Amino acid sequence: MTRPKTLSDESVLKIAHQLIHEHGPEVLTFARLAKACGLSPATLVQRFENMAGLKQKTLLYAWDRLDEKTVALAAIVPKTAEGAIALLVALSRDYGGIESYAEGLLVLREDLRDPALRSRGAGWKVALSSALEDCFAGVPNTPPGIGLLMASQWQGSLLWWSFDPQEKVERCVEDSLIRFVDAIIPSRLAAKGRPY
């Protein structure tokens, strides 16, 4: 197979992100990426300088995709409590099974080690919390800060699911978030007639 003469940085970073997502951050090397994308290791070194630069740009690429997905989902979900739940369930689909989720935790470790990546995480927290707040704008008796509270519940439900992944992650997240909303907004529980 002949090597491609050109491949955009975005295409290379997409392949690098796929390698990290499937096998963990330690697997990313110039040699392995070269094999996966068809460019020479020397070309990749010219573009990304060193492994730290390649890893950071790959993870920034992943943050860009997550930001885009969050904005796109926030634009289409109903501005209701159910819409907030749907947004978080949709974001949960990317986690896949337990092996994929466990690899994602290794990626999170890389994010936490790098100030630029931590900053992206902090920015996403604000954007996601705001999108969730918007969903509750017309819901009576909503406590202040519901967006961050709900995002925190979501992250907790993912972690608890990971210890006993007997059901699909989306189902676990949805059940947890329904219970959370019903507990936070009791008038909603009475109106829906939920059994719990």
TrEMBL record:
Asked if the keyword Nucleotide-binding belongs to this entry, the reply reads no
UniProt cross-references to Pfam families, sorted A to Z: TetR_N
Ordered alphabetically, the record's keywords are: DNA-binding
Superkingdom, taxonomy of origin? Bacteria
Q: Does the keyword GTP-binding apply?
A: no
Q: Where is the HTH tetR-type domain?
A: 6-66
Q: Which InterPro entries match?
A: Homeodomain-like_sf (IPR009057), HTH_TetR (IPR001647)
Please give the Gene Ontology molecular function terms for this protein: DNA binding
Q: Which residues form a coiled coil?
A: none
- The entry's DNA-binding region feature spans 29-48
Q: What is the name listed in the Swiss-Prot or TrEMBL entry for this protein? A: TetR family transcriptional regulator
